[in-house]
Amino acid sequence: TEVSRSSRKLFERAKRVFPGGTTRTTIMFRDHPIYLNRGDGARVFDEDGHSYIDFANNFTTLIHGHCFGPVTEAAIAQLNLGSCFANPTSSEIDLAELIVSRVPSIDQIRFVNTGTEAVMFAIKAARAFTGRHKIAKFEGAYHGAYDWAEVSETTTPDGNNLNPPARANYIGMPPSVTSEVVVLPFNDLERTRSILSEQECSLAAIVVDTMPSRPGLIPLKSEYVELLNEYAQKNDTLIISDEVLNFRLGYHGAAQRFGLRADLTTLGKVIGGGMPIGAIGGREEIVWVFDSSRGSVVPQGGTFAANPVSMVAGHASLIALDRPAFERLEVLGDYARRSVERLSRDLGCTLSATGLGSLIRLHPKARPPSTYAQYFQSPAEKQFMQDLHFALLERGILISNTGLIALSTPMNESHIDALTAKLEDAIVSEGLFR
Ligand code: PMP
């Protein structure tokens, strides 16, 4: 239609130079994507002049929203001094010290550019440290694009409760990769215990996201965390806490909040203040594998690793993400989840919300799911979520295509009230009842 003429025209150009017209598989659209050209706090603006409240925040990255003053100023000041060097800068020490001071399980850290790289190097470190090659991960969980971390990123839960298969993520993935990954059904204590009992002392690491977003943004049960802690200790298996997304769950990180005994922690997104970043932190005796002065068991580098623009932007972002900021986000997140529940009750529709703190995920289910099997969506439910996503977009609300909502510090109750009102309008006037 005429209302999105500019986006439509841009997509025509994009289709000629990008396969599928985009450079990220996570861009979802009907006829064409909405091209944004500006953000400001909790709002973004598209090429056709429409404005949206941004609950996507680049897949949870922008915890202070767009153009947050301290981050922008720090990044511009650094750009005027130079964007990257072959030598270290003091900015990397500043950010490292800040993270080490906040996260109890991190003695030392290395910086990379993405969460994918962080997970890759953490797995390599665990292999080098233990001398084992196999890893375990959760069914449905996303950890970036390192082959082993990609196994069973999408699976269909088996109605007969068979063990989740190690599934290749693309045609041509070497079968050796799937044979080196053990897949666990998270929050299912019985099955996980039985699968792990067959893996005595064979796993280098279990990659754990304490609230994996793709399979439902469902928090791990405390008994489940306990099971993982016990297995890891008994079998000299390392726990990699993947907090690329969930570091924003607490001042001390996600593992601390859940009581998970992390040996290695992977970080990304919020620690870069909106600039590209990733990090691998851990206990000193483990991360020494990266120490090239001792012979570098695991070579780790990267042209843009610890680039000072990401370092200063991340530092400014984390300084502003102080304890009061976390407390405010926690209250606002609870308010959002309660608001969705109330709306669902009032309308008598099957809509529920999971999540903790500043992260919320909407589900086309009467009750919030607590396992992957409960989360799993039928084609009709998937369609409902897509329709909801687009109906909200038309009403000036941007959420992630999976129904993931990430709050930012410039938001207050009025933004949540707008979300609830638009949800109601979308469901009622578009007849999206389920
Ligand atoms: N791990 C988790 C838990 C993630 O959510 C993501 C990205 N959404 C990644 C790893 C990969 O991070 P990146 O996109 O920066 O490579």
Can you offer a commentary on this structure?
- The mean pLDDT is 96.
- The chain has two domains: 2-63 and 322-429, Aspartate Aminotransferase, domain 1; 69-320, 3-Layer(aba) Sandwich (Aspartate Aminotransferase, domain 2).
- Strand 8 (238-242), helix 10 and strand 9 form a beta-alpha-beta unit.
- With 434 residues, the protein is α/β, with parallel strands linked by helices.
- It is globular and about 60 Å long.
- It is built from 16 helices and 14 strands.
- It has helices at 5-17, 57-60, 69-81, 90-102, 115-130, 147-150, 175-179, 189-197, 222-235, 254-258, 284-287, 308-320, 323-347, 372-375, 379-394, 413-429, and strands spanning 36-40, 43-46, 51-54, 108-112, 134-138, 181-184, 203-208, 238-242, 264-268, 278-282, 352-356, 359-363, 397-398, 404-406.
- A seven-stranded mixed β-sheet has the order 4-10-9-8-7-5-6, sandwiched between helices.
- Helix 3 (69-81) runs antiparallel to helix 12 and helix 13 (323-347) packs parallel to helix 16.
- The structure holds 4'-deoxy-4'-aminopyridoxal-5'-phosphate.
- The site of 4'-deoxy-4'-aminopyridoxal-5'-phosphate has 15 residues, from helix 5.
In brief:
By secondary structure, this protein is α/β, with parallel strands linked by helices.
